[in-house]
Amino acid sequence: MRLKPEPGRARVIGIRPEIAFAALVVDGVIREASGSGAVVTAGTDGTHSPGSKHYVGAAIDVQSHGLDAPKVLKILQDRLGPDFDVILEDAGAPNEHFHVELDPKERL
Asked: Where are the domains of the chain?
């Protein structure tokens, strides 16, 4: 796994431990799918929508270029489980990426 290079290097200072775990899972899935590691494009840095979980260290964005994104998305959702949301954002655009965020679900 690596961080997006300059300019605009992704920052992971302040991410929650659960997101660090998710990043390791994402890296493993992407390695299986492509033979190379994940590239984190945003952590606690960047400009995101108001209320974004990036601002509190509970989300990362990861490149999806060159992957069968719908297939990888399904695998990520299965492996991370219900306490994480994985969304393919900007599908088909140059900025296409997986958004992975911590979203714990209440259990009965």
From this structure: 2-102
